[in-house]
Amino acid sequence: MRSLRPLYYLLLLIGAAIAAADPWSTDCPGDANYTRGGVFEANLDALLSFLPASASAASGFAEKATGVAPDEAYGLAQCRADVSASECRACLNASVRDVATKCPGQKKSTLSYYTCLLRHSNVSFFGVADMSWQPHLCNRDNATQPELFKMQLGALMNNLSSRAASSPRLFAADTVDLTPFTKIYGMSQCTRDLAGDDCNRCLSVAVSYIPKFCDGREGGRVDTRSCSIRYELYRFYNAQAAEAAMSPLPPPPPAVNGSDQSGPTGRAGNDDATAKIALFVSIPVAVVLLVLLTVALYLYSEDGTDMGTSESLLYDLSTLRAATDNFSEENKLGEGGFGPVYKGTMQDGQDIAVKRLSKTSQQGQVELKNEVVLVAKLKHKNLVRLLGCCIQEDEKLLVYEYLCNKSLDKIIFDPARRQELTWEQRYRIMQGIGRGLLYLHEDSRLTIIHRDLKASNILLDPDMTPKISDFGLAKLFSVDASFGNTSHIAGTYGYMAPEYALHGIFSAKSDVYSYGVLVLEIIAGRRNNFSQYPGTNGEDLLTTVWRHWSRGSVSGLLDGCSADGLQPSEMLRCVHVGLLCVQEDAHLRPGMAAVVVMLNSRSITLPVPTPPAYVVSGRAGALGRSTTPEAQAPVGAVRGPYVNDPSVSDMEPRCIDGREWDWKIRHRRPNLSSL
């Protein structure tokens, strides 16, 4: 048997070489042919002769246009970021040979290989995400734990999409544990002509096709002309090379002027060698000095009052006074725990929002510095952008981008304005907040717990895109930490997780709790407090939602929203996800990666939620607000234990007349042996 092993490995290598020699997918649109021997063919030949060498010598990517219109040829070549330069060159050389036989006489073609991609056209496609072509391959074997596999796979691929979009090579590869002995390996990559947002959008579309093409399969691949994803239960990429590919790109080599070369023994050769040595020595030294300087400035601001160490973040007080008309009441946008916020207009016409620390505010310079240090390092479309700060005289000011639709609470809790908010907008706001929170918890280089997520801290841009703001209470975690503890409880009642409100324990799961409350508020259009809303009997929101859920009727929760575009199944799923997020046991709450997957995928079966932390059962089978003195505590204080029902209900949506809908409730006995 041992003597057969070399032959077995040789057959594997031969099989891999044969597979790499042919494109696994070819697209040759027949709507544009070129004339043999014409100008376009000459331009295309010149283009194809340039791309393989250029791409393999330039970190695996090259794009070029040759000739002039109307015979201009555009081309792009890219290799998978984990393959070597020689593998890249070999794959692209094969693609140039294949394009003549696979797509003869075609002005447009796309050839996709396991390790490279070649694309050309007679019109420019650079910088445009093209998802109109979706070739796919699927493993023949089905996953043995399909529900767990789908959830873990969705979390992995969404994470990789975000990471690839923000990496220098638009590439990411990683793993997620399926069982203690099995991992799912995943990879995402975009063509490097795309912007980060377009890359993320392309990869999200590719990920959304997994349930359609490869539902429940152990492995699969989905490509478009602009991006590709792949996942398997085995490592199909070079892990070490992939890790290096996700690191910042090295500086380009110094230019060499061939006319000044005088040979290895000449003076010019010695000068070049000396210059190279000096360059390679000076760059690391400069980097070390820059890091030391940054750390020194940060430490200096830690124990002093110097918050203006970065000139790009420093505003002059007189400039901000002029922009806000000396902080006039007419320009006041609102007021929070930090202090009032004013609209300002700079001399160049740029609108800004200026947050001014109140003299009576309990928040001080520590919170101000915390916000500057954290927000300046974070960049995401669902996080508010900090422009700078100012500390002069007795003023402490933060300057942000101005968002014309102000904060979410101004809309969803206003009986008149919330009617303007369609279900589609509410759904997109929930998704955007989820993506922003996922970025804070997992996808940024920092691990951040917000600790004060609420409707008034969600700002809306002109397109109603949500942006998380107010990081004064946020906590920065080390990579290996999962929770923290504090004796200083700060936040907002109604959004606080019970473990934080009672014991000061905070983690990503306490942010998940706040997110769940926010989701239910967006759906219901009311605050999570005790208010005399019609039909609520003075209950807090969580109790009301749980009561509707338990009775199988949540259609009445959506308040003041136009029925146009309402998707009952989406609403049901959002209520379900919200209830999963506000469960009392933090360990039962899903992480934000799983939450984002649950909101975006209809193919995943969601677990049955346990009652929310603040819902009390006065007696078995009767859920509602307790009448005990403990229950009269403010929202945010746990009001005693609840009694579990003797059965568990699985709930399924059922449409009635396309508009009205309720639930079919299927009872089952719980496993009492586990109690």
UniProtKB/TrEMBL annotation:
InterPro entries: GNK2, GNK2_sf, Kinase-like_dom_sf, Prot_kinase_dom, Ser-Thr/Tyr_kinase_cat_dom, Ser/Thr_kinase_AS. GO terms for molecular function: ATP binding; protein serine/threonine kinase activity. Residues 1-21 form the signal peptide. Its main location: membrane. Residues 327-606 form the Protein kinase domain. One of its GO terms (cellular component) is membrane. It is found in: Membrane. PROSITE patterns: GNK2, PROTEIN_KINASE_DOM, PROTEIN_KINASE_ST. It is a single-pass membrane protein. CDD domains: Gnk2-like, STKc_IRAK. Residues 247-269 are annotated as: Disordered. The chain crosses the membrane at residues 277-300. The keyword Zinc-finger does not apply. It comes from the Eukaryota. Residues 22-125, 131-236 form the Gnk2-homologous domain. GO terms for biological process: response to abscisic acid. Keywords: ATP-binding, Glycoprotein, Kinase, Membrane, Nucleotide-binding, Phosphoprotein, Receptor, Repeat, Serine/threonine-protein kinase, Signal, Transferase, Transmembrane, Transmembrane helix. Coiled coil: none annotated. PANTHER family: CYSTEINE-RICH RECEPTOR-LIKE PROTEIN KINASE 5, RECEPTOR-LIKE SERINE/THREONINE-PROTEIN KINASE SD1-8. This is Cysteine-rich receptor-like protein kinase.
